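Much of what follows relies on a compact textual record of a protein's fold. A record is reproduced here so that you can trace the correspondence yourselves:

. . .
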Amino acid sequence: MKEKRILRRGTSRKITAMVMLAAFVFAGVFANINKKAEAANYWYQDYEYELKDGKMILKEYQGSDTELTVPGTVTVKGVKYKVALNKAYMGLEPWTPEDPEIDDEDPCIDAWTGIWSFTGVKKLTISSGVIFPANCTGLLANIRNCEQIIINGANTASVKKMESMFENNYALQKITLKGIKTSKVTNVKYMFHGCYNLKNIIFDSFDTSSITEMNGMFEYCYSLQKLDLSNFNLGKVTSPDSCKYVFYNCYALDEIESPLKLSVNIDLPADYHYVYCDDPDDYDDERYESLPQNWLTSLHLTRYSPTFVKQPADVKVIRGSKAKFSVTVQQPWSGAENCLYKWEVSCDGGKTWENSKASGYNTDTVSMTSTKSLNGRMYRCRVTDTKGVMIQSFPAKLTTLPVVSVQPVDQTVKAGTKVKISLKSRSTVATYLWQVSTDGGKTWKKSGADGQGTTEITFTSSKKQNGYKYRCIVKNGTWEEKTSIVTLTVK
Protein backbone atom coordinates (compact mmCIF):
# COMPACT_ATOMS: atom_id res chain seq x y z
CA MET A 1 0.00 0.00 0.00
CA LYS A 2 2.84 2.32 0.80
CA GLU A 3 4.34 1.84 -2.65
CA LYS A 4 0.99 2.59 -4.28
CA ARG A 5 0.61 5.82 -2.32
CA ILE A 6 4.09 6.91 -3.35
CA LEU A 7 3.30 6.08 -6.98
CA ARG A 8 0.10 8.08 -6.88
CA ARG A 9 1.79 11.06 -5.28
CA GLY A 10 4.56 11.04 -7.94
CA THR A 11 2.02 10.77 -10.75
CA SER A 12 0.03 13.63 -9.32
CA ARG A 13 3.12 15.83 -9.18
CA LYS A 14 3.94 15.00 -12.82
CA ILE A 15 0.42 15.83 -13.97
CA THR A 16 0.51 19.09 -12.05
CA ALA A 17 3.82 20.00 -13.63
CA MET A 18 2.54 19.17 -17.09
CA VAL A 19 -0.58 21.25 -16.56
CA MET A 20 1.51 24.19 -15.38
CA LEU A 21 3.84 23.85 -18.36
CA ALA A 22 0.90 23.69 -20.77
CA ALA A 23 -0.63 26.74 -19.14
CA PHE A 24 2.67 28.55 -19.39
CA VAL A 25 3.07 27.69 -23.10
CA PHE A 26 -0.55 28.63 -23.82
CA ALA A 27 -0.09 31.93 -22.01
CA GLY A 28 3.00 32.64 -24.08
CA VAL A 29 1.24 31.81 -27.36
CA PHE A 30 -1.78 33.84 -26.33
CA ALA A 31 0.42 36.78 -25.37
CA ASN A 32 2.20 36.56 -28.72
CA ILE A 33 -1.12 36.54 -30.56
CA ASN A 34 -2.23 39.52 -28.50
CA LYS A 35 0.97 41.36 -29.33
CA LYS A 36 0.45 40.78 -33.05
CA ALA A 37 -3.20 41.84 -32.81
CA GLU A 38 -2.16 44.87 -30.80
CA ALA A 39 0.48 45.78 -33.38
CA ALA A 40 -2.11 45.45 -36.15
CA ASN A 41 -4.54 47.64 -34.22
CA TYR A 42 -1.89 50.28 -33.64
CA TRP A 43 -0.71 50.51 -37.29
CA TYR A 44 -1.39 54.26 -37.19
CA GLN A 45 1.50 54.83 -34.79
CA ASP A 46 3.81 54.90 -37.81
CA TYR A 47 1.98 57.99 -39.04
CA GLU A 48 1.75 61.61 -38.09
CA TYR A 49 -2.00 62.09 -37.75
CA GLU A 50 -4.74 64.33 -36.37
CA LEU A 51 -8.01 63.36 -34.71
CA LYS A 52 -10.70 65.79 -35.83
CA ASP A 53 -14.46 65.70 -36.42
CA GLY A 54 -14.69 61.92 -36.02
CA LYS A 55 -11.80 61.31 -38.41
CA MET A 56 -8.21 60.21 -38.13
CA ILE A 57 -6.46 62.33 -40.76
CA LEU A 58 -3.19 60.73 -41.89
CA LYS A 59 -0.51 63.31 -42.67
CA GLU A 60 2.88 61.62 -43.03
CA TYR A 61 4.11 58.03 -42.99
CA GLN A 62 7.22 57.66 -40.84
CA GLY A 63 7.60 53.88 -40.73
CA SER A 64 9.80 51.46 -42.65
CA ASP A 65 7.36 48.78 -43.86
CA THR A 66 7.37 48.13 -47.60
CA GLU A 67 3.79 46.79 -47.83
CA LEU A 68 0.98 48.85 -46.33
CA THR A 69 -2.79 48.52 -46.06
CA VAL A 70 -4.83 51.50 -44.93
CA PRO A 71 -8.18 50.47 -43.35
CA GLY A 72 -11.35 52.54 -43.56
CA THR A 73 -11.82 52.84 -39.79
CA VAL A 74 -9.70 52.77 -36.67
CA THR A 75 -10.43 52.57 -32.94
CA VAL A 76 -8.39 54.70 -30.54
CA LYS A 77 -9.00 54.41 -26.78
CA GLY A 78 -12.41 52.90 -27.40
CA VAL A 79 -13.49 55.59 -29.88
CA LYS A 80 -14.05 54.67 -33.52
CA TYR A 81 -12.82 57.05 -36.22
CA LYS A 82 -13.09 57.14 -39.98
CA VAL A 83 -9.69 57.19 -41.71
CA ALA A 84 -9.05 60.16 -44.00
CA LEU A 85 -6.06 61.26 -46.09
CA ASN A 86 -4.54 64.69 -45.80
CA LYS A 87 -3.95 66.57 -49.06
CA ALA A 88 -0.45 66.83 -50.50
CA TYR A 89 1.69 69.95 -50.53
CA MET A 90 4.42 71.31 -52.79
CA GLY A 91 7.70 70.69 -50.99
CA LEU A 92 11.39 70.37 -51.79
CA GLU A 93 12.87 67.14 -53.09
CA PRO A 94 16.48 66.48 -52.04
CA TRP A 95 18.93 65.88 -54.88
CA THR A 96 20.39 62.41 -55.41
CA PRO A 97 23.11 61.64 -57.98
CA GLU A 98 20.92 58.90 -59.53
CA ASP A 99 18.10 61.28 -60.39
CA PRO A 100 18.53 62.47 -64.01
CA GLU A 101 15.86 65.13 -63.64
CA ILE A 102 17.80 67.21 -61.12
CA ASP A 103 20.78 69.44 -61.80
CA ASP A 104 23.56 68.95 -59.24
CA GLU A 105 24.06 72.72 -59.21
CA ASP A 106 20.50 73.12 -57.89
CA PRO A 107 20.27 70.62 -55.01
CA CYS A 108 16.50 70.86 -54.47
CA ILE A 109 13.46 71.10 -56.71
CA ASP A 110 9.76 71.60 -56.09
CA ALA A 111 7.91 68.29 -55.85
CA TRP A 112 4.49 67.13 -54.73
CA THR A 113 4.80 65.59 -51.29
CA GLY A 114 2.03 63.36 -49.98
CA ILE A 115 1.70 60.97 -47.05
CA TRP A 116 3.98 58.27 -48.55
CA SER A 117 6.19 60.38 -50.86
CA PHE A 118 9.93 59.56 -50.80
CA THR A 119 9.44 56.50 -48.57
CA GLY A 120 10.41 52.86 -49.18
CA VAL A 121 6.83 51.64 -49.66
CA LYS A 122 6.58 49.10 -52.50
CA LYS A 123 2.91 48.10 -52.31
CA LEU A 124 0.10 50.33 -51.08
CA THR A 125 -3.52 49.22 -50.61
CA ILE A 126 -6.15 51.80 -49.67
CA SER A 127 -9.24 50.02 -48.44
CA SER A 128 -12.96 50.63 -48.61
CA GLY A 129 -14.17 53.69 -46.74
CA VAL A 130 -10.90 55.65 -46.62
CA ILE A 131 -11.85 59.28 -47.24
CA PHE A 132 -9.96 61.16 -49.96
CA PRO A 133 -9.69 64.97 -49.90
CA ALA A 134 -11.56 67.06 -52.49
CA ASN A 135 -8.20 68.11 -53.93
CA CYS A 136 -6.08 65.00 -54.60
CA THR A 137 -3.40 66.87 -56.51
CA GLY A 138 -0.09 65.06 -55.94
CA LEU A 139 -1.66 62.90 -53.22
CA LEU A 140 0.08 59.64 -54.21
CA ALA A 141 2.95 61.19 -56.18
CA ASN A 142 6.67 60.56 -55.76
CA ILE A 143 6.41 57.20 -54.01
CA ARG A 144 9.55 56.35 -55.93
CA ASN A 145 9.93 52.68 -54.88
CA CYS A 146 6.26 51.72 -55.10
CA GLU A 147 5.45 48.98 -57.64
CA GLN A 148 1.70 48.57 -57.06
CA ILE A 149 -1.13 50.79 -55.81
CA ILE A 150 -4.62 49.43 -55.15
CA ILE A 151 -7.54 51.73 -54.36
CA ASN A 152 -10.59 49.58 -53.66
CA GLY A 153 -13.91 51.12 -52.64
CA ALA A 154 -12.41 54.23 -51.08
CA ASN A 155 -14.62 57.23 -50.38
CA THR A 156 -13.84 59.59 -53.27
CA ALA A 157 -17.32 61.08 -53.58
CA SER A 158 -16.10 64.64 -52.90
CA VAL A 159 -12.96 64.52 -55.08
CA LYS A 160 -12.80 67.22 -57.75
CA LYS A 161 -9.12 67.27 -58.71
CA MET A 162 -6.79 64.34 -59.46
CA GLU A 163 -4.07 66.41 -61.07
CA SER A 164 -0.60 64.81 -60.78
CA MET A 165 -2.13 62.27 -58.40
CA PHE A 166 0.38 59.48 -59.24
CA GLU A 167 3.07 61.66 -60.80
CA ASN A 168 6.70 60.49 -60.91
CA ASN A 169 6.15 57.06 -59.37
CA TYR A 170 9.08 55.75 -61.39
CA ALA A 171 8.89 52.10 -60.26
CA LEU A 172 5.10 51.78 -60.40
CA GLN A 173 3.94 48.90 -62.61
CA LYS A 174 0.25 48.46 -61.80
CA ILE A 175 -2.59 50.70 -60.59
CA THR A 176 -6.06 49.42 -59.70
CA LEU A 177 -8.88 51.97 -59.34
CA LYS A 178 -11.91 49.95 -58.32
CA GLY A 179 -15.30 50.83 -56.89
CA ILE A 180 -14.63 54.55 -56.50
CA LYS A 181 -16.91 57.47 -57.32
CA THR A 182 -15.40 60.12 -59.57
CA SER A 183 -18.47 61.87 -60.98
CA LYS A 184 -17.29 65.24 -59.58
CA VAL A 185 -13.72 64.99 -60.90
CA THR A 186 -13.00 67.74 -63.44
CA ASN A 187 -9.20 67.75 -63.59
CA VAL A 188 -6.94 64.75 -64.35
CA LYS A 189 -3.99 66.68 -65.79
CA TYR A 190 -0.66 64.82 -65.50
CA MET A 191 -2.42 62.16 -63.42
CA PHE A 192 0.06 59.42 -64.38
CA HIS A 193 2.83 61.70 -65.66
CA GLY A 194 6.32 60.22 -65.35
CA CYS A 195 5.24 56.69 -64.37
CA TYR A 196 8.00 55.26 -66.55
CA ASN A 197 7.44 51.57 -65.74
CA LEU A 198 3.65 51.58 -65.55
CA LYS A 199 2.29 48.68 -67.62
CA ASN A 200 -1.25 48.21 -66.38
CA ILE A 201 -4.02 50.60 -65.29
CA ILE A 202 -7.34 49.07 -64.30
CA PHE A 203 -10.17 51.60 -64.56
CA ASP A 204 -13.23 50.00 -62.98
CA SER A 205 -16.35 52.23 -63.14
CA PHE A 206 -14.16 55.33 -63.47
CA ASP A 207 -16.67 58.12 -64.16
CA THR A 208 -15.18 60.75 -66.49
CA SER A 209 -18.39 62.60 -67.36
CA SER A 210 -17.29 65.82 -65.60
CA ILE A 211 -13.70 65.93 -66.81
CA THR A 212 -12.73 69.14 -68.59
CA GLU A 213 -8.91 69.13 -68.15
CA MET A 214 -6.68 66.20 -69.13
CA ASN A 215 -3.40 67.65 -70.42
CA GLY A 216 -0.53 65.16 -70.17
CA MET A 217 -2.67 62.54 -68.39
CA PHE A 218 -0.46 59.61 -69.52
CA GLU A 219 2.60 61.65 -70.48
CA TYR A 220 5.95 59.78 -70.18
CA CYS A 221 4.30 56.44 -69.44
CA TYR A 222 7.04 54.77 -71.46
CA SER A 223 6.04 51.16 -70.71
CA LEU A 224 2.26 51.37 -71.05
CA GLN A 225 1.24 48.87 -73.76
CA LYS A 226 -2.56 48.61 -73.49
CA LEU A 227 -5.12 51.14 -72.39
CA ASP A 228 -8.87 50.65 -72.09
CA LEU A 229 -10.68 53.98 -72.27
CA SER A 230 -13.90 52.48 -73.64
CA ASN A 231 -15.89 53.68 -70.61
CA PHE A 232 -14.47 57.19 -70.78
CA ASN A 233 -17.11 59.80 -71.56
CA LEU A 234 -15.14 62.89 -72.60
CA GLY A 235 -18.07 64.97 -73.78
CA LYS A 236 -17.04 67.94 -71.60
CA VAL A 237 -13.50 68.06 -72.95
CA THR A 238 -14.26 70.73 -75.53
CA SER A 239 -11.09 72.81 -75.77
CA PRO A 240 -7.96 71.64 -77.64
CA ASP A 241 -5.91 73.49 -75.00
CA SER A 242 -7.22 71.19 -72.28
CA CYS A 243 -6.16 67.89 -73.89
CA LYS A 244 -2.59 68.41 -75.09
CA TYR A 245 0.17 65.78 -74.71
CA VAL A 246 -2.25 63.19 -73.32
CA PHE A 247 -0.13 60.32 -74.73
CA TYR A 248 3.15 62.17 -75.17
CA ASN A 249 6.11 59.75 -75.24
CA CYS A 250 3.96 56.67 -74.66
CA TYR A 251 6.43 54.75 -76.80
CA ALA A 252 5.09 51.26 -76.11
CA LEU A 253 1.34 51.89 -76.46
CA ASP A 254 0.24 49.17 -78.90
CA GLU A 255 -3.50 48.88 -78.23
CA ILE A 256 -6.13 51.34 -77.11
CA GLU A 257 -9.89 51.16 -76.67
CA SER A 258 -11.05 54.62 -77.74
CA PRO A 259 -13.26 56.82 -75.52
CA LEU A 260 -16.80 57.99 -76.23
CA LYS A 261 -18.35 61.35 -77.20
CA LEU A 262 -15.04 62.88 -78.20
CA SER A 263 -15.32 66.16 -80.13
CA VAL A 264 -11.75 67.51 -79.93
CA ASN A 265 -8.46 66.31 -81.33
CA ILE A 266 -6.38 64.17 -78.95
CA ASP A 267 -3.16 63.06 -80.63
CA LEU A 268 -2.01 59.49 -80.28
CA PRO A 269 1.74 58.95 -79.60
CA ALA A 270 3.67 61.05 -82.09
CA ASP A 271 4.24 59.57 -85.55
CA TYR A 272 2.55 56.27 -84.77
CA HIS A 273 -0.28 55.05 -86.99
CA TYR A 274 -3.20 53.15 -85.51
CA VAL A 275 -5.84 51.10 -87.33
CA TYR A 276 -9.10 49.42 -86.32
CA CYS A 277 -8.65 46.47 -88.63
CA ASP A 278 -6.00 43.79 -88.98
CA ASP A 279 -5.73 43.86 -92.76
CA PRO A 280 -2.39 45.36 -93.87
CA ASP A 281 -3.94 46.18 -97.25
CA ASP A 282 -6.17 48.74 -95.53
CA TYR A 283 -3.27 50.46 -93.81
CA ASP A 284 -3.33 53.64 -95.86
CA ASP A 285 -7.10 54.06 -95.63
CA GLU A 286 -7.72 53.13 -92.01
CA ARG A 287 -4.93 54.77 -90.07
CA TYR A 288 -5.44 57.20 -87.18
CA GLU A 289 -2.93 59.63 -85.74
CA SER A 290 -5.42 60.92 -83.16
CA LEU A 291 -8.34 59.39 -81.32
CA PRO A 292 -11.43 59.00 -83.56
CA GLN A 293 -14.09 61.63 -82.98
CA ASN A 294 -17.88 61.59 -82.94
CA TRP A 295 -18.19 57.81 -82.63
CA LEU A 296 -21.01 56.44 -80.49
CA THR A 297 -19.14 53.22 -79.82
CA SER A 298 -15.58 52.50 -78.79
CA LEU A 299 -13.05 51.39 -81.40
CA HIS A 300 -10.23 48.94 -80.73
CA LEU A 301 -7.17 50.62 -82.24
CA THR A 302 -3.97 48.70 -82.87
CA ARG A 303 -0.64 50.34 -83.55
CA TYR A 304 0.51 49.44 -87.01
CA SER A 305 4.12 50.48 -87.12
CA PRO A 306 7.64 49.20 -86.62
CA THR A 307 8.59 48.11 -83.12
CA PHE A 308 11.81 47.80 -81.17
CA VAL A 309 12.75 44.18 -80.63
CA LYS A 310 15.80 45.41 -78.75
CA GLN A 311 16.04 48.75 -76.96
CA PRO A 312 19.35 50.45 -76.14
CA ALA A 313 20.58 49.52 -72.65
CA ASP A 314 22.49 51.56 -70.09
CA VAL A 315 26.24 51.11 -70.43
CA LYS A 316 29.04 51.31 -67.88
CA VAL A 317 32.49 51.35 -69.45
CA ILE A 318 36.06 52.12 -68.40
CA ARG A 319 37.39 55.40 -69.74
CA GLY A 320 39.42 54.82 -72.86
CA SER A 321 37.33 51.79 -73.88
CA LYS A 322 34.61 51.66 -76.52
CA ALA A 323 30.98 52.21 -75.55
CA LYS A 324 28.18 50.99 -77.82
CA PHE A 325 24.43 51.48 -77.99
CA SER A 326 22.30 49.53 -80.43
CA VAL A 327 18.68 48.87 -81.43
CA THR A 328 16.92 46.15 -83.36
CA VAL A 329 13.77 47.05 -85.27
CA GLN A 330 10.99 44.91 -86.67
CA GLN A 331 8.22 46.18 -88.91
CA PRO A 332 5.06 44.38 -90.04
CA TRP A 333 6.08 44.50 -93.68
CA SER A 334 9.30 43.68 -95.47
CA GLY A 335 12.11 46.16 -95.82
CA ALA A 336 13.22 46.68 -92.21
CA GLU A 337 16.77 46.84 -93.51
CA ASN A 338 15.82 50.06 -95.31
CA CYS A 339 14.81 51.93 -92.15
CA LEU A 340 16.50 55.25 -91.48
CA TYR A 341 18.32 55.64 -88.17
CA LYS A 342 19.19 58.84 -86.33
CA TRP A 343 20.90 58.76 -82.95
CA GLU A 344 20.50 61.68 -80.57
CA VAL A 345 22.44 62.67 -77.46
CA SER A 346 21.46 64.59 -74.34
CA CYS A 347 23.95 66.32 -72.05
CA ASP A 348 21.39 67.44 -69.45
CA GLY A 349 19.75 64.25 -68.26
CA GLY A 350 17.22 64.02 -71.09
CA LYS A 351 15.81 67.55 -70.92
CA THR A 352 17.10 68.52 -74.37
CA TRP A 353 18.40 66.46 -77.30
CA GLU A 354 20.61 67.07 -80.31
CA ASN A 355 21.87 64.95 -83.20
CA SER A 356 24.78 62.73 -82.25
CA LYS A 357 28.00 62.89 -84.26
CA ALA A 358 29.40 59.66 -82.84
CA SER A 359 30.51 56.83 -85.10
CA GLY A 360 27.50 55.01 -86.57
CA TYR A 361 25.05 57.84 -85.78
CA ASN A 362 22.98 56.87 -88.87
CA THR A 363 23.03 53.09 -88.31
CA ASP A 364 21.48 50.74 -85.78
CA THR A 365 24.63 50.93 -83.60
CA VAL A 366 26.41 54.02 -82.35
CA SER A 367 29.80 53.89 -80.62
CA MET A 368 32.26 56.23 -78.99
CA THR A 369 35.49 56.15 -76.97
CA SER A 370 34.52 56.86 -73.40
CA THR A 371 35.97 59.83 -71.56
CA LYS A 372 35.21 61.70 -68.36
CA SER A 373 33.30 64.39 -70.29
CA LEU A 374 30.90 61.78 -71.70
CA ASN A 375 29.92 60.51 -68.24
CA GLY A 376 26.16 60.81 -67.69
CA ARG A 377 25.24 61.47 -71.30
CA MET A 378 22.11 59.81 -72.63
CA TYR A 379 21.49 58.36 -76.09
CA ARG A 380 18.34 57.43 -77.99
CA CYS A 381 17.53 56.45 -81.54
CA ARG A 382 14.80 57.65 -83.90
CA VAL A 383 13.91 55.12 -86.57
CA THR A 384 11.80 55.93 -89.64
CA ASP A 385 10.40 53.00 -91.60
CA THR A 386 9.73 52.68 -95.34
CA LYS A 387 6.20 54.11 -94.95
CA GLY A 388 7.42 57.20 -93.13
CA VAL A 389 6.37 56.11 -89.64
CA MET A 390 8.86 57.21 -87.00
CA ILE A 391 9.43 55.53 -83.64
CA GLN A 392 11.74 56.58 -80.86
CA SER A 393 13.69 54.30 -78.55
CA PHE A 394 13.97 54.55 -74.79
CA PRO A 395 16.90 56.69 -73.62
CA ALA A 396 19.98 54.87 -72.36
CA LYS A 397 22.66 56.28 -70.07
CA LEU A 398 26.43 56.16 -70.50
CA THR A 399 28.44 55.90 -67.29
CA THR A 400 32.20 56.19 -67.73
CA LEU A 401 34.37 54.81 -64.94
CA PRO A 402 37.90 55.84 -63.99
CA VAL A 403 40.49 53.17 -64.79
CA VAL A 404 41.75 53.27 -61.21
CA SER A 405 39.22 51.85 -58.76
CA VAL A 406 41.35 52.12 -55.60
CA GLN A 407 43.91 54.90 -55.24
CA PRO A 408 47.37 54.46 -53.64
CA VAL A 409 47.70 55.72 -50.04
CA ASP A 410 50.38 57.44 -47.95
CA GLN A 411 52.99 55.19 -46.35
CA THR A 412 54.79 55.55 -43.00
CA VAL A 413 57.67 53.11 -42.43
CA LYS A 414 60.93 52.62 -40.58
CA ALA A 415 64.16 53.04 -42.48
CA GLY A 416 65.36 49.79 -44.00
CA THR A 417 61.91 48.21 -44.28
CA LYS A 418 60.14 47.24 -47.48
CA VAL A 419 57.63 49.69 -48.96
CA LYS A 420 54.67 48.75 -51.15
CA ILE A 421 52.68 51.37 -53.04
CA SER A 422 49.80 50.02 -55.11
CA LEU A 423 46.56 50.79 -56.89
CA LYS A 424 43.66 48.72 -58.14
CA SER A 425 42.64 48.91 -61.78
CA ARG A 426 39.44 48.09 -63.64
CA SER A 427 41.34 47.48 -66.88
CA THR A 428 43.20 44.36 -67.99
CA VAL A 429 45.03 46.16 -70.80
CA ALA A 430 46.05 49.47 -69.21
CA THR A 431 49.69 50.54 -68.87
CA TYR A 432 51.27 51.98 -65.72
CA LEU A 433 54.11 54.48 -65.30
CA TRP A 434 55.10 55.16 -61.69
CA GLN A 435 56.80 58.47 -60.99
CA VAL A 436 58.66 59.89 -58.00
CA SER A 437 59.21 63.50 -56.90
CA THR A 438 62.07 64.45 -54.58
CA ASP A 439 61.17 68.16 -54.41
CA GLY A 440 57.67 68.12 -52.96
CA GLY A 441 55.86 67.53 -56.25
CA LYS A 442 57.43 70.31 -58.33
CA THR A 443 59.13 67.94 -60.77
CA TRP A 444 58.60 64.26 -61.54
CA LYS A 445 60.73 61.44 -62.97
CA LYS A 446 60.30 57.76 -63.66
CA SER A 447 60.61 55.62 -60.56
CA GLY A 448 63.26 52.90 -60.57
CA ALA A 449 61.41 50.78 -58.04
CA ASP A 450 60.64 47.11 -58.63
CA GLY A 451 57.27 46.56 -60.28
CA GLN A 452 57.49 49.53 -62.62
CA GLY A 453 54.84 49.00 -65.32
CA THR A 454 52.49 47.12 -62.97
CA THR A 455 49.87 48.14 -60.40
CA GLU A 456 52.37 47.88 -57.51
CA ILE A 457 55.91 49.06 -56.88
CA THR A 458 58.19 47.92 -54.04
CA PHE A 459 61.50 49.15 -52.66
CA THR A 460 63.53 49.27 -49.45
CA SER A 461 63.19 52.61 -47.68
CA SER A 462 66.01 54.85 -46.60
CA LYS A 463 66.20 58.01 -44.51
CA LYS A 464 66.82 60.21 -47.55
CA GLN A 465 63.49 59.13 -49.05
CA ASN A 466 61.54 60.78 -46.25
CA GLY A 467 59.02 63.16 -47.86
CA TYR A 468 59.31 61.64 -51.34
CA LYS A 469 56.06 61.68 -53.30
CA TYR A 470 54.76 59.04 -55.71
CA ARG A 471 52.08 58.83 -58.36
CA CYS A 472 51.16 56.66 -61.32
CA ILE A 473 50.19 57.67 -64.86
CA VAL A 474 47.63 55.15 -66.10
CA LYS A 475 46.75 54.79 -69.78
CA ASN A 476 43.84 52.83 -71.22
CA GLY A 477 43.83 53.22 -74.97
CA THR A 478 43.99 56.94 -75.68
CA TRP A 479 42.71 57.84 -72.22
CA GLU A 480 45.21 58.94 -69.58
CA GLU A 481 44.67 59.62 -65.90
CA LYS A 482 46.93 60.27 -62.93
CA THR A 483 46.46 58.73 -59.51
CA SER A 484 46.36 60.75 -56.33
CA ILE A 485 49.79 61.76 -55.03
CA VAL A 486 51.02 59.86 -51.97
CA THR A 487 53.75 60.79 -49.53
CA LEU A 488 56.36 58.44 -48.04
CA THR A 489 57.33 59.16 -44.42
CA VAL A 490 60.49 57.36 -43.22
CA LYS A 491 61.20 57.35 -39.48
